[in-house]
């Protein structure tokens, strides 16, 4: 996925088309990313903040991404809708 050494937790969609992962920036803040495997393109779906992500998982049909977020300093941005076309492309 990356050579940064800053990847936290990961989840692979049941069809293998997507990889979701948390990644820390230079300041140690975590963001949530979604990578489309066939193009290796990635979208940051939740910008880096003081939050930590736990328990990433896709349902059996792969239509959503479920996660637990803990905001350590009450600075996490609002969660975007994961049905947005920029996040999910038909394979």
Helical percent range?
under 10%
pLDDT averaged over residues: 77
Shape: globular
Radius of gyration: 13 Å
Considering the chains and any ligands shown, give keywords for the structure.
91 residues, mainly beta, four-stranded antiparallel sheet, two-stranded antiparallel ribbon, disordered C terminus
What layout of secondary structure does this protein have?
Layout: E1 7-12, E2 18-24, E3 30-36, E4 41-49, E5 51-57, E6 66-71
Antiparallel strand pairs: 1-2, 2-3, 3-4, 5-6
Structure report:
- The strands form 2 sheets. A 4-stranded antiparallel beta sheet has the order 1-2-3-4, with no helix packed on it. It has a two-stranded antiparallel sheet with strand order 5-6.
- The model is unreliable at 83-91 (pLDDT under 50).
- The radius of gyration is 13 Å and the shape is globular.
- A hairpin with an 8-residue loop joins strand 5 (51-57) and strand 6 (66-71).
- It starts with 6 loop residues before the first strand and ends in a 20-residue tail after the last strand.
- The protein has strands at residues 7-12, 18-24, 30-36, 41-49, 51-57, 66-71.
- The protein is mainly β and 91 residues long.
- Helices cover 0% and strands 46% of the residues.
- The chain contains no helices and 6 strands.
């Amino acid at each position: 996925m990356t050579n940064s050494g800053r990847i936290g937790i990961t989840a692979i969609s049941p069809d293998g088309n997507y990889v979701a992962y948390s990644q820390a920036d230079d300041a140690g803040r975590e963001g949530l990313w979604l990578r489309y495997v066939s193009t290796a393109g990635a979208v940051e779906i939740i910008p880096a903040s003081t939050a930590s992500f736990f328990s990433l998982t896709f349902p059996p049909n792969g239509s959503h991404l479920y996660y637990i977020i803990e905001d350590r300093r009450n600075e996490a941005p609002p969660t975007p809708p994961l049905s947005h076309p920029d996040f999910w492309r038909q394979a």
